Records
---
Amino acid sequence: MAVLYFGREVFVPLALAALLSFLLVPASALLERLGIRRAPAALIVVFVSLAAIAALGWVMLGQVYNLAVELPQYQQNITQKIDSLHLHSAGRLSNTLAMLSEESRQLRGGVAPATAPALPDAPRPHIRSRSRAVSDPSKDQLSVQNDQPVTVRVELPEESFINLANRTVTPLIHPLTTTFAVVVFLAFMLVGREDLRDRGIRLAGRGRMHVTTSAIEDAGRRVGRYLRMQLIVNVVFGTVAGLSLWLIGVPNPLLWALLICVLRFIPYIGIFLAAAGPLLLSLAVSPHWNVLLWTAIMFLMLELIAGNIVEPLLYSSSTGLSPIAVLIAAIFWTLLWGLPGLLLSTPLTVCLVVIGRQVPQLQYLDVLFGDETALPPSERFYQRLLSSNTHEARALLQGLLATQPRDQVYDSVVIPALTLIEESRHAEEMTSTRAEEVLQSVEELTEDITSHSSLSEPPTSNTPKLIVCVPARDLADEIACQLAAHILSPASIVRVISADTATSDVLQTLDSLHPDAICVVGVPPQSLRHIRLRCNQVRAHLPQAAIFACLLSEECDLSNIRSRVSTEDAQHVVCSLHLMEEYLSSLLYPATQPDEHAQKSDDVVEDKQNLSEPLFEMQGGNIVDESEEGAFQRLATNLARSYDAPIALVTAAHNERRFWEAKCGLPDDALSFADTMHDPSVLTRLVSTESILVIPDTAEDPRSADEPFFRQFGIRFYAGMPLKSHDGTVIGSLCVLDTRPRQISEKQKEMLVWITEVVTTAIELQKATPSPEPTVETASDSFRQI
């Protein structure tokens, strides 16, 4: 901090130049695209900017001169307004109050005011002078001369040239040198911006190139957008204010419009500085008060609209700063650098927050000053429960339910809170008694909110199905079953079995109810093995039952659950209440199930980001390395997660090498089972003649209805894309499988095609390249082209 303070003569121009460079880089880049070289383009942008500033300054000086000429004629209006306030009556009022106070004090003391007795006027003595006044003519003439005014002239010595220069030029040296330094820094930054970026990356370390590049791009994008949006807002604000002042009758509206545009860049006090001039002038231009009143109302309305509607919509999220961070930054940088620090406070703090987001050691900067909430809703809800603040916990849930679907709120807030309670209990950070109290609070809150909310009626075209929810083990699992009942009850009849019920009683109840579906529900961290055990018990007692293994978790990983719970124990696996509702609706009410997956297309970009890491890992080395096989495995896992599917496969055709196979959600012997059924494998044969093949229901489609592989593992949905070589030979397939009938959107189909092209390119490069070194370069070029 001491370095920043004592070095402010250098740091302030440097920071101002950097701030202006964010604003002028797009203009310089535009000139470069038009064919002008970088150095001339940068100089043209700087020269035009200086010319524009000089023109605005000249216009403002002219307006100030006109205002100075017209100002004396408003003296009478100011005098009338002062007289209308009756300020001279304040003296008489204070004297009256003092007299009344004295009288009251004397009356409380019981003493009458002392008054002097009236006495008759005494006769005045008559004194006669014994001497007579003698008239002196010389003295009379001297007194007459003394009564005449005497002219006095003060002559100052002639001011030297050095003193004149010192008095006029010295105050201008500091701002002129600062301006010159800003212009020089700005020109060099525009010309060498790429070199400066490379030096910053080198300074941060080559091993952190990705982090440094992301930080530079993020900071430049946020600061540039903030400055451009604020410039637009200030210009519009100044234009509207100038027109309003002209209509009201305030002189020199152009001057005030320009000042408003410039001064609003200063946080907090800028608008007050801009409004002070028009308000004071409106006080003088008219003998009445209406001009001042309309001017104040105009500024108040414009600032309310700009500060609460326009600015939040345009750039509130672009800075990434919380309101308290903006205030703290303004105070800190103002104390450090004065008025320039106040002007630079927001951009400098934005850069610090971006660094905090990219560098783990400085993450506290993002936590302190960032606009993201310090705790996610699930942890906030959990903290309110721990502090026994059920009022705020209820308000939090009700606020989320007002804007989000019920299943989404339960999946993102309540289920993670249950998981946190279970983790604390298993880690012995919370006693069992305390955990039970918190769980009961969750149960009461959700029941209370559900009882006061209106639920939609079940569809009249279907007979409601009976669904039984069985907790895997304890009270947390039972509460999860109750949450599932809240989601499923509008369309189905849901029964929840208590967690205290013995296993024999559970099986007897299921046998007597004959449910259409049985959901074994649990929450992490130790419920998966209990879910598997409970599913096995139910399957042994009811071999034909439709069983769903439901491990409700915020980190939804269907393939992991599917690989650990066999299809013999549970035909279907789900990891959220939303998926549970979708699975049950598609299986129990297939005729009324909406095509939700066809509507979900906005998340495809995020899914591509999840798949990018394993895909680009393939381009970095030999495809037969163990790490590359791991990349294919992660690709299959992320592919299943992106499509909300339990199974995904990267499989090879017959007689192809199988080192690059990958699977998730199936046991180890699943692929060998598929290969023994047909030659080549069924998964490759289905797509051998198609560019992309989607079978919404494999049980109804003649191409897949008789496939033993699908029947063995309960596959009801298939989406596949062939892996074709450059000559059209099918060398394998990329498949997404599900245990329920469903659809995928067009964008999800496009993403499957994109992934297949990348995988095929990586495989062919490995087969065609004899050594690892050319493989890396060639694969990198091909991936960049894709």
---
Amino acid sequence: MSKLKLIAVGGALLASFPALADDEPRSYMSFAGYTGIFHTPTAEVLDKGYFDFSYNNQLDYRGNSYLDGHNFVFAAGLFEGLEISGAIASTTMHDNTFVLRRQRELGLSDEPSKRDLSFNIKYQLPVIPKEWFSVAVGAKDFGGAANQYETFYLAASKEWGNFRFSTGVGSNSRPHGQMNGVFAGVEWQPWDWFALQVEHDAEAVNAGARVTIPERWLFDIGRITLTSRFYSNTEIAENETFWGINFTMPISRQARRPNSVSPAPSAGRYSATADAQEEQTPSSATQRSVESNTHSEHNATNSTQHEFSPQQRTVQDSAQRAQTEPAERGNNEYRSGLTLQAQNLRAAILRDGFEGVSVGFNQSAHFVVQFENYVFKRNDLDALGLVMGRISETVYESGAEFTVQLVTRGMPMLAISGNVENYRAFILGDAAPMLDMRRGKMQPVNGVAWAGMPDANSPYFKPRVTLGPALSTRLATELGVYDYALALNASIDVPMWRGGGLSVSAQTPVVRTEDYERGKAFGRFNPDSGLTQAALYHTMELPFGIYYQGQVGFFQEFNDFTGIKNELMWLDQSGRHQISTEFAYLNYNDYRGYNDYQTASYRYNWVERDISFHATAGRFFYGDEGAKLEARFWFGDGYVALFAQATDVNVAGIAFSIPLTPRKELSITRTRYGQVSGNEAWRHSVGTRIGESANTLAVGRAHHLETPVSLERTFFNQGRLSPLYIQNNTFRLREVYLTYR
């Protein structure tokens, strides 16, 4: 009872100070690996689209005491109200705990040893209005093997001025009793850079302070928080004072939409927002219409509609010129005007670096643009936005229309049509865009005359070099907190014919930890130096919207193979549903034998929430059979994924994919002889066994043969090249033009 009185008195003293901060209290990452105070959670969660990395030196040693050790926490806000984190707890960084354990058994040492990897999740319930109070439920170190920190809790928080009051109840079986019962805490933030915190964690009272270095002092990259837990009345701590540091930043700047945008109503042949879409036409390229139902989205870039940026003034000049053109002109003058506009448009698109460019028009002032995108490798949507912005800038003919055809390796992938004046008004922030979209080839446009030679700046026989890391890691093993082997991978793609070309990859080791040296525990997983893949690939569109890609050649996947890999993919007309299959037959180069695998996959794209769900089942690369489920939470051009797989062992984990190349490729890296760029979708994952008593390593389970060129990544923009995706990201079409004009 005396501890609860201490909290009440402390809260009363804090409440006696005047309110000095205008902002509501900031949420912080606790020492335990969830948003909270030091040991206890609050009902707040990390904001959607934010990542937090933290370190603190307070180690909870087997639920018996607090030692001076190492805690690493990686957290992300994946969804509105959903926070996930992974934590590593260790007594030492590099000591071999097998040796320490044996020495302790023989009485040669009394040094404690511990190293643990855990997963945490927290969800803020949306059913209670936030102006009342917030409620969250969470779990720490659940579902895996050897769950030494397993805890479940319910927390409630109420903000009052610059105070936050929290309470809740937790349950666990740890001996010291922390978070096993009722807990409570108070936070006071008198300034936006400083906060005082006090809590009772069901075992002891703790108090401390936070100091934050704001984003504006760090070039708007992120913010740093320094933490000191300077008081505790616990009797099981090695030190009374512990400290920590956090770095918080947005996962992607492109994920920050100007406003929340509802899906546009469809004026096409079927409803894009219905769960079950009913096709109204046998055409495989179903027409889509995009009309944003909010204008505030398009006005967010400017403070008012009447203050134009230099880019917008260029477009406005085209609009004024269209209005002042005489209504009656001779046929020759009219055609000369169309020719000049088409030539200017063609020159602008070529200056942007696009390839395979064809620009034409007909007597009805319908302008047609066809191009291939090697400029915005991270997202084809940006290329479409810049090209359509160029049309609004250079075409001033009254009543003009346009069709843009995006081509990949000579294959038509997506077409967008619209009215030039409407799109120009969209760029200026005065209207919503009316766009008709269809997958595949565009609708025929009659009587097109091409300005200059078609397919200018040919993309064929230009080597495309992609550089990126090849990383093998082991986390929180008995050999160390973090072991790794890093290599530099270079992939060369040479498009040679429609849908096909040559793909070659090689790598060279850069740096590794001692445990990845030859003869050491992880030595066999050290990336080899030399050729890793060399294959010819061919892609084609089959009837009923099915795409096929085959690759024949050399593949290195721990062993050397020669064989063939095949992919088949089908997408529905909107791009919400995707079904694919992958099968390969590979002969060992150094042994008598072969390896084959077959998998089938389904993907559901919840594009309104930037989430995609993936399910794969079959026989995987190393012969294990079973299924894998994955949810990807997209932030701009990257994502954070949660996965679970059940083959011969059960594994769950987290993965992330990030672009390692600029949004727009630098002009100095693109020449008429080739191109050098970074990996636009580099992925890394960490997994752990679940449902078992021991957490032994599981290597290569549910594995696919990854290739630099694939249907989903190369031809379908990581599965995002669809009318539905563009419909829900129209703000980016305008933003990319205003950024790179």
---
Amino acid sequence: MPTKYASNAGNSSAEEKFVQLFCDVFGPEKGQYVYLQFPFLDIYGKHRTIDFAIRDKEGKIAFEIDGNTWHNPAKVSEDKYLDDLLKQNSLIYDGWKVYRWTDAQLEKTPERVKDELVTFLGTSPALFFIDDIMPEQKGKVFSLREHQEEALDNLKQMRMDGHTIALVQGATGSGKSAIGILDAKAVGKRTLFLAHTKELVLQGYHNFLKLWPEVSVGKYIEDEHDTDTYVVCGSIQSIVRNLDAFNADEFGYLIIDECHHASADTYKKILSFFKTRFTLGLTATPERADGEDLLDIFQHVAHKLDIQEAVENGVLVPVRCIRVKTNIDLQDVRINGFRYNSLDLETKIMVPGRNQLIVDTYLEYVKGKSTVVFCTSVNHANQVANLFRQKGIRAESISGSVKTIERKKILRDYENGDISVLCACDLLNEGWDSPHTEVLFMARPTMSKTIYIQQLGRGMRTCDGKEYLMVFDFVDNANMFNCPYSMHRLFHVAEYCPGGMILGKKHDIQWDKSLFTKGEKPEALVDFPIHAMDYEVIDLFNWQDKAQNMISQLELTRRVSAQSETIDRYIRDGKIKPDMEVPISEHRTFKYFEPHRIPQLCKEFGWKQITSANIKQMFMDMAKKMNMSYSYKPVFIKAFLEHMNEDGEARIEDVVQEFAAFYEERIERGLPAEKKKCIFTKGGYTEKDVERLILAMPFKRFEDMNFMHHSKYMGVIQLDKQIVKQLTDDNIRELRQYCDIALERYFGNQ
């Protein structure tokens, strides 16, 4: 059955509208990085939530969508207004960027909101999962007093004990750098060495050549940007400015020399971006000049452990899973990007048969165990809790709608064992987790990877006597594009044995599998009514995962020298066939291509491939050739360069005035402005006429080549960021010379 999608009429809440706009701008494949109702603590320790949260290479970003009155102190109570300010100030204090819109803006001026999203995030932002809910890495400081061999043994033992961050303290000249290089060599992973001065970078470079001659060593400082060598020695400043030149997981070992000199903000950008297996800080003192403890800073800002690492290190418990199939059909539940239509979903899920199945599963498999049931809504949680109570099970529903005092009592009673089952709607928002929880029921279908992981994390904390967490996935029937997440789909485990271990130490998982293969139950499952010989192969297809390794049509347009209208037409006419088509709303289908198709399409249609490495030169070449039937291109470039700021932006108002002044000056000198049909020749034009001319003719070609972008509602023209990053003062002088030559050629000696 084909997927249905949420129409604007039936799905017009501000939350749904923002999801739609986000997908329109960046593509639905980026949706998996968006967190809805993300929990955080304000400066007074009060639990709060962010409407939408994401993380890019610069840090965390909050999007707040409110009603018009919430932004107006004259229309809300003073307490509410001040509380809203406190929330925003707390976010900024904690390093968040905060962007806010009203729900009316989303409905009335959606194009403006999309324009602003591009301005804030860029045309193709690199997004990452926010790992704040995961445990911090374990770290340790030791002083370099022992012999070199003992120091290396110490580091090896730290890793065996689950530590992933180490600070080595030693005086200058004590051999700290050699220890770091030899330990990196012993680990054998690709290594990034960072220092805050050129001298230290070069010193590290030569030490690596001497102590680890078997691998290639490169430099990333000033004009030398080696990125393909096995070891990269770079300055912290150069790396921070060029994080987009690297993949987050391409280094396994990170060394920061003289790390007490770097700022906390620098640490945050480096340590939160690179997902290294081990980080080594070399320092003369474990404290910075401002008195802050270096290890605390490292652990706080470094990327958190992922779930698998946390389980292997014993920070979180292993997870087993039982799949419970329902007779519910989700195939016609409408979706909007990466979310189900809430009304459709609740209608499908809140049926007596499915709710009863939840209760019966508890009674059959885990009666008496502390269990959290994740539900789709407050009503759903209330209904399921009531069914549990009818069967004599102490159960309560809990959500943000429950008063704070009552909510705290329910959670306390659950922790004390006075309540056996919690039916939760938005418990995530409380930043709550329970070490005593033994079982999770995933009864809320979700297409959001972030929501599923957040739910899972609530039950994985360690507790005395707790050997594992049992997860029950309630599996509803869905189609390939609206299939919800489950343990097996999330962790790419195709083979299913009831109660099998999905997350755990590798040798434990292998032992588990060997028992099932022999038809034996693992000891942990002896009391469960399951059959060891039951086996199923699960279809793990996930279009969001597949799309991550493909090129969207939006991205294809940015990577080839063809107009978006041309690509649209070729796809519509069947000249170009996408490799995957994902219908994400009632009227939108997103198309994706395998990466190898780009050079093939360029060859077939005579396009040029645009990359970050060649885009500046292509821009320079286009300016140099300056093919034109009017004089507008060189005049436009000169006007733009005259008012371009360091970010590569110029106010279109300034460009318009500069552009018009060129032709007005020619008229004053008694020279023809342009051809007879030109608005400057005819006269009587307005600044708006000049703006339309610029955007329709000279600018359009630069936009088609992805060299420039127009932010309509911000009133600016932007040079592509990759060009700006590479553009030198000499390049700008050359561009002006190209323009002068082109104008002289066009007008002759007039």
